[in-house]
Amino acid sequence: MTVDLVIRAQGGDHDAFEVLARTSIDRLYGIARRVLRDPTAAEDAVQDCLVRAWRDLRALREPARFDAWLYRLLLNSCRDELRRSRRRPAVVTLESIGGPAAEDQYAAVARRDEIARGFARLSIEHRMALTLHLHLGLGATEIARVLGVPEGTATSRIHYGTRALRAILNEPAPAPAAPGAVR
């Protein structure tokens, strides 16, 4: 069914492309959100990805590989979005509130937030590989195809990305600032 829709969309059928986009958009947004860690940037990356997909769909030689091709377009859009965000960085000041108490019922939320911050510190290549591996359940072979890298590189990115994330999460937390201290 998907191959038929891709072939029809390659022929200029807007309705077929709309069905392909509608069935993929939630998955694309989930990946972009995990890679970029910003909902607005993720929306922009998905929109850019779908525009590129429509524009370049005729160049897709294997309609059965549409999903992998679309993921590659998305990850390229994520890279572009990260480059744009570096040119206009946002300045956000956060006050330290300390870590959760041992009996805190919100410890799981705090841990998830800690993982998200650690994930954001990884390189874009490691984030992409880990997102495809952990979120979509892809193996190194599929990740290599999506990213356009050798399988060994994909395996290495998964391994070193996981190792870096563990190291980040095991770093001691910064000491809270004294009340009234100026940063």
Output the keywords.
183 residues; mainly alpha; Rna Polymerase Sigma Factor, Chain: A; Arc Repressor Mutant, subunit A; 2 domains; 8 helices; 68% helix
How would you describe what is shown here?
With 183 residues, the protein is mainly alpha-helical. The chain has 2 domains: 1-87, RNA polymerase sigma factor, region 2, helix turn helix motif (Rna Polymerase Sigma Factor, Chain: A, Orthogonal Bundle), CATH 1.10.1740; 102-174, Winged helix-like DNA-binding domain superfamily/Winged helix DNA-binding domain (Arc Repressor Mutant, subunit A), CATH 1.10.10. It is 68% helix and 0% strand. The chain contains 8 helices and no strands. It has helices at residues 2-10, 14-36, 39-56, 66-87, 107-120, 124-135, 140-147, 151-169. The longest helix has 23 residues, at 14-36. The radius of gyration is 20 Å and the shape is elongated. The N and C termini lie far apart (58 Å). The mean pLDDT is 84.
Quickly describe the structure.
With 183 residues, the chain is mainly alpha-helical. It has eight helices and no strands. The chain has two domains: 87 residues, RNA polymerase sigma factor, region 2, helix turn helix motif (Rna Polymerase Sigma Factor, Chain: A, Orthogonal Bundle); 73 residues, Arc Repressor Mutant, subunit A.
